[in-house]
Design goal:
With about 325 residues, the chain is α+β, with helices and mostly antiparallel strands. It is built from four helices and 18 strands. The strands form three sheets. Strands 9, 10, 11, 12, 13, 14, 15, 16, 17 and 18 form a ten-stranded mixed sheet that branches. It has a five-stranded antiparallel sheet with strand order 1-2-3-4-8, covered by helices on one side.
């Protein structure tokens, strides 16, 4: 699901619940999230909402089971088992394009309710969502020695099986060697070929990841004045069959969320990127730690609407993915 619309965060904040699992319609008009055991549905085009009680969203479909066409939300609610009946799942479908006017209610007005607090994302560890590369496994001298020993053992038994079959050609009681040589030769010759092919073609995943992340953003910033953003992190330990590396570059964006009034008296919550920079990895810090640093500057805004400022960190290899770090910023007084 794409990032939830700001209206979802506002409604969740006013309800006192954190949004859970969510989904979006294929055309992007509707979003549905789990909210305190209910399902919150928002119409982004008409700025309307509906809260379905006691059900959970499971996805959008193109039609209802009875054939009604149009964007349809599938939900389910699990009933409690009794002494006479087992638990059962209640499936429901709502054809959103065929609902009546009483189904929807307007969004809360952020001009009076205020913007919700910034939903910060500061994970301790992060792994790239981009496709992970692979590389050939590099072996040490000891690994190559063990490899040749194993190959020699397999080849010895394969040769022994072949020689046993040749001994059986002498005839007489030596035909008994065929019962030993044939299965030994067949098994170990195949094992030798498989061992050589799989070991020489063995590859491991190169996982792009960061751990122990610490973001330095200062105590505040001023409009029109540059300020520094620094990310200190470590490279997580590699698991079996992989190697971990830190990304070469990270995209850093300065985001502004504000409430804008429109000419027709309506309003909209807008997210805009006010500045962007690329932070390059610096390995000259303390051993085991990497540093990403860049400079951002907020441009003067044409209005005085209440705003929330955040800094977002994204991976350059997957620019359309969700940011892995979202941190709030404080506008310092002049």
């Amino acid at each position: 699901m794409p990032r939830p619309h700001p209206s979802v965060a506002l409604i969740a904040h006013l309800s006192g619940h954190a949004p859970g699992y969510g989904c979006a319609s294929p055309d992007g008009r509707y979003q549905a999230v789990e909210l305190g055991g209910d399902t919150l549905i928002v119409d982004l085009q008409e700025r309307l909402m509906h809260r379905a009680l006691g059900v959970y969203p499971r996805g959008f479909e193109e039609a209802t089971p009875d054939g009604a066409k149009g964007t349809t939300l599938r939900m389910e609610g699990e009933e409690t088992a009794t002494a006479y009946l087992p638990a059962w799942t209640d499936l429901q479908w709502i054809a959103l394009e065929h609902t009546t006017g009483s189904f929807w209610t307007p969004w809360p007005d952020p001009r009076t309710a205020g913007l919700p607090p910034v939903d910060e994302t500061l994970p301790a560890e992060w792994t790239s969502e981009a496709p992970q590369a692979t590389e050939r496994v590099r072996r040490s001298v000891g690994d190559w020695t063990a490899w040749f020993v194993a190959l020699a053992v397999l080849a010895f038994f394969a040769v022994f099986g072949f020689n046993a079959m040749t001994w059986a050609l002498a005839g007489g009681w030596q035909w008994l060697w065929m019962a030993v040589g044939l299965p030994v030769f067949a098994m170990f010759s195949v094992l030798t070929v498989v061992f050589v092919v799989t070991s020489l073609r063995e590859r491991r995943r190169v996982r792009v990841a960061l751990g122990g992340m610490s973001l330095e953003r200062g105590e505040g910033f001023r409009i029109g004045e540059p300020f520094d953003v620094r990310l200190l992190a470590t490279v997580p330990e590699a698991q079996g069959g992989e190697r971990t590396v830190a990304p070469e570059r990270i995209a850093v964006r300065l985001m502004r969320r504000s409430v804008r009034s429109e000419a027709d008296g309506r309003w909209t919550v807008a997210d805009e990127c006010c500045d962007e920079a690329i932070a390059v990895r610096d390995d000259t810090t303390r051993a085991g730690r990497v540093l990403y640093a860049c400079e951002l500057c907020a441009r003067p805004t044409p209005d005085d609407a209440p705003s929330q400022w955040t800094v977002e960190l994204r991976e350059t290899a997957a620019p359309n993915s969700a940011p892995f770090v979202v941190a709030g910023l404080r506008l310092a007084a002049r």
